[in-house]
Structures
1.
Amino acid sequence: MHASVARSAKIARPRRPTDSRWITAGQSAIHGRGVYAREPIPDGTPVIEYTGERITKAEAARRETQRLARQRRGGDDSVYIFNLTNRHDLDGRTRRNVARLINHSCAPNCRIEVVRGRVWITARRDIPAGAELTFDYGFAFPDWALHPCRCGSPRCPGFIVASAQRWRLRRIPRAERTRRAALGRAR
Ligand SMILES: [Zn+2]
């Protein structure tokens, strides 16, 4: 899902739930369950590692097809797949990857960071205790209609698109966005 995370991240499947002193999981104001700051988190803190299974692009495409089928049935439609390299993705859909619960926001308080080959969710500003943690999922523009956004930030265009491409979405009139989203396709 996320563009340019790492050229060669070494990803190990976690054996037990990833943990962090900084966070606690709970019901999200944005979508499903979310992750909250347990105490004030200083800007730049690596908050929790994003772990999962390293898979090929072909396997990632197969899993995305499954996800869309679940979405049509009204099941769990969450996306946990990151672009790691040209050949491999990271599938974070494992209960042990607590960071999978962190929601997208168009005005996020965290970012993705690679530290010595491992993917971390890092604070991009000082975060007060009790705030929900978010980062930019960075979805590609062509898929926008598949990913409605309920982040509630003032500049939210209503769909999840990487910040660098969000201007393209804003060019589409709001009524047209609603119509195409109902059809479940961007074009
Ligand atoms: Zn948003």
2.
Amino acid sequence: MCKEKHAGRNLDYALCFLLTVLYEKKLLNVKKKSLNCLSTTCLFNIGYSKNNKKQEIDIIFISLQEEKDKCFSKITQNYKPLMNKIVEKYAELPKPIRRPLWRLWHNMITSFDKQKVTLFMNYGYASNNGEFMNLKLKPEDEADRYSIQLYDHVAGSNHLKDKDILEVGCGRGGGASFLARYYKPKSFIGLDISKKTTDFCNNHHQAEGLKFIKGHAEELPFEDSSIDAVVNVESARVYGNIPKFFEEVYRVLKPDGKFLFADMIKPKDIESINKQLEEAGFKFLKKENIRENVVKALKLDTEYRKERIHEGAPKFLHKSFYQFAGVEGSERFDAFDNNRIDYWSYTLIK
Ligand SMILES: C[S@@+](CC[C@H](N)C(=O)[O-])C[C@H]1O[C@@H](n2cnc3c(N)ncnc32)[C@H](O)[C@@H]1O
């Protein structure tokens, strides 16, 4: 039954597998009313329907009591490479798929990171010209040096002291904590769409004026002209409406406020991103392609990233996490190394 029902729908199989594992490990919550039958012997069937031009995904539970073992082992044996493809290509998947996948990854990281060592989720920055000779880090921060250097490159030279700073998409809060501890702003608010993430940050990070809140990039919960600088590192590319995010940043910034923005961007998209920034009202103070610095950081950090993945994640997910972490040898690394994706860093002013 399983085979016939899903024949030719490899992506469905791979998603079924991922969602089933997460459900069985209690990393995924599903509303009871959407279930035809509730038990851990259920598989998810992802159905795509086109409705008023908007692609929607329905997660429907189907009961496959007897077929489950057969089906499940087929999926696990044959579709691991597809799992990796999904992770590797997730930025290119349709938005309705990207968002739930993104949340799942975050739930997984929170759940696997028992030692609470994952404080950053970016690709890092390594200098080609001795840029960070004077960046003396505390011993406890050294392990995250390349991710910290990315934050320092993006925001460090912007006179944050005694200012009101907002970071959108703060993730596990390592960057917010670094900037708050080393540059002493008056206040630093880290905002993220995931409550699990901001709860983790509020429990884990302590610094004067630092706090974390749940919020949405496209609807920032702040008054007009109330913030001195907005930081945004490796987050915007997954937002549903990037121009709306840029407008929101412009709205909340004080006159002459700075937008300190960095993300990976495909060469074909760069013109439209620049246009959207201009249309939001920003003037460009700096615009730099830092792809080579990111590639260098990934090379230097590969062993450490792999060690952490081996410590935290179950073996069957190692390859998927390699893609996510961009370690040398992964498709993501290759895309950076061979100029298929660039990494841009901006300083913009209102
Ligand atoms: C790749 S992580 C980067 C985290 C952090 N900036 C860093 O460099 O470690 C991207 C973060 O953006 C958050 N995010 C995604 N969509 C968001 C949205 N619409 N509003 C706010 N945060 C969002 C995710 O939850 C995630 O924590």
